[in-house]
Amino acid sequence: MKRGVTWTLMSLLLLTSVSGLVYWDYSSYLDSPVATGEAREINVVIPRGTTFSQVVKILKDKGLIVSPSWFKLYLIINEMAPTLKAGAYYFNTGMTPREIADMLSQGPRTPYVVLTIKEGFNIWQVAAAFESAGLADEEDVLDLLVDPELAAEAGIPQGPMPDNVISPVEGFIFPETYFIAPGQSVRSILLRMIRQSLNELKQVKKNNIAQYSVMLERVGLTDYEIVTLASLVERETPLEHEKKLVASVFLNRLAAQMRLETDPTLTYSRERRGAKPTVEDKKNEANPYNTYARAGLPPGPICNPGRDALAAAVATPRTGFLYFVAKQDGSSGHHFTTNYPDHERAVQQYLKKKK
Rounded CA gap, 99 and 23, in Å? Predict the structure, then answer.
């Protein structure tokens, strides 16, 4: 009996000692600086919509969190996980994990600029967004957006650049809300946007590898052509469920050597941007982006597509559709058809009735 009591006491003592050591390690971690020596400033941007786990990963990748498990535990115990705020932060390696967590819960202390690039923005709209945010003059931004050196520095996979491409980076300014910390140059901001776009394209291909392989066998589009196709899809429909159907129409027409005849390409120019396409625009053979007058894809993207449009261009389903027409009923939807007689009937139904 005494032996059993002794073992129980010893077990309790051991458990208490281990618990004490664990708690000491936990507390010591929370109250110790990130690094010893001279403190370094580290800029961290937490995008809107970032999850609790993603925030911890961002901090770990920046070298601010060496024990993600302890850091997560602290946030959970103190009910701070739901309070973490997006924004641009300036941490330094002399801070403790507890101080970093408190700052994330309170929000950024340093002012930052919010810059939103919407899906379907073209280079002129991007430049205008920079100016509206007070980051730079619109014309100065445009000078960079037409600079081939910026595209080369960012690593845009274009291959031989056609002479008639308006902007070598059009299509690769990823639509997102960005938090811009003070002092960042326009060039560095654009490079960040372009590299995010390249990462998004890489991820979309990885997530849809089977469909991507089929698309390559069928039409063999390069990455630059995929983004070009995605830009057409982005401009044709805002509806997520329609994007892949629109992409299928374009791929079917390419495979059948039919012209794409997509209206948004008719007014892709500094002079005509935002204008309603006209009969004269359709006949303008001097416009290299005119898919009514010229076969194949335009020489480059006509806007900056988002994730759904990129996925539509990479993982395009097989359909028999060759035509579509806007329904003009306020839904932003389209009617898809497989042959010209049915398409003409749809045009009569949805467009000519409205005149």
Answer: 18
